[in-house]
Amino acid sequence: MENIVIKPHHLLDILKLYGKGIENFVPDINYNHDFYLIGNMVVNGKVEFIRFTRDCDDICRPCKYCKTEKCSDVVAFLSGYSKDEYNKEIDDELLKFWGLRFDMDYSFNDILVLLSKELNYHLFKKVWKHEQEDAIQFRNAFTIMGTYKVLLNYAGSKG
Ligand code: SF4
């Protein structure tokens, strides 16, 4: 079992894509980040403890946009926002919603149980306030589905 450091919205992105039906994440040759590596660990029952960060995480480290703990990418659909600023706003909101803190170790299984109770349309609508309605509904449905699928994988991995 492994311990990971991750931005809260990266965790939800993994759960959303898994809920949508992606069973095996593959490397991104453009960004060169480790989304595939952490994503596969998360969904395959390999993570024991999780620590949330708002800075560069285990996914970001090899990414071409990870510069001195900050993301130097831009948000294509939102002028005036850096991706770093945009992501930090989302990540701060998510932890506030869940009553969790950055830079603390949590049992990943406990986090999955919490997410299965706390994820809902209201949360996605409030946190992803710049997104279109259909994208929010997509996020809500598939992230919840992915959370339950991963919970089952962790229950299975315990025997
Ligand atoms: S550095 Fe930025 S673009 Fe790269 S993985 Fe991290 S958040 Fe994404």
List the helices and strands and how they pair.
Blueprint: E1 2-6, H1 8-20, H2 35-43, E2 47-52, E3 66-67, E4 70-71, H3 83-98, E5 105-107, H4 108-118, H5 121-127, H6 133-157
Helix pairs in contact: 1-2, 1-6, 4-6
Which features does this protein show?
single chain; 159 residues; mainly alpha; three-stranded mixed β-sheet; two-stranded antiparallel ribbon; globular; binds iron/sulfur cluster
Note down, in words, how this protein is organized.
The protein has one domain. It has 6 helices and 5 strands; from the N terminus they run βααβββαβααα. α1 crosses α2 (35-43). With 159 residues, the protein is mainly alpha-helical. A hairpin with a 2-residue loop joins β3 (66-67) and β4 (70-71). It has helices at 8-20, 35-43, 83-98, 108-118, 121-127, 133-157, and strands at 2-6, 47-52, 66-67, 70-71, 105-107. The strands form 2 sheets. It has a 3-stranded mixed beta sheet with strand order 1-2-5. Strands 3-4 form a two-stranded antiparallel ribbon. The chain is globular and about 45 Å long. The structure holds iron/sulfur cluster.
Please tally the helical runs, counting DSSP H or I stretches of 4 or more residues. Answer: 6
Shape: globular
**Stretches with pLDDT under 50, minimum 5 residues:** none
The largest sheet has its strands arranged as 1-2-5
- Over the alpha carbons, how many angstroms does the gyration radius reach? 15 Å
Terminal Cα span = 14 Å
How many strands, which pairing sense, and closed or not: the largest β-sheet? 3 strands, mixed
Name the assembly state: single chain
Instruction: Name the structural class.
Output: mainly alpha
Helix content: 40-55%
Counted up, domains total 1
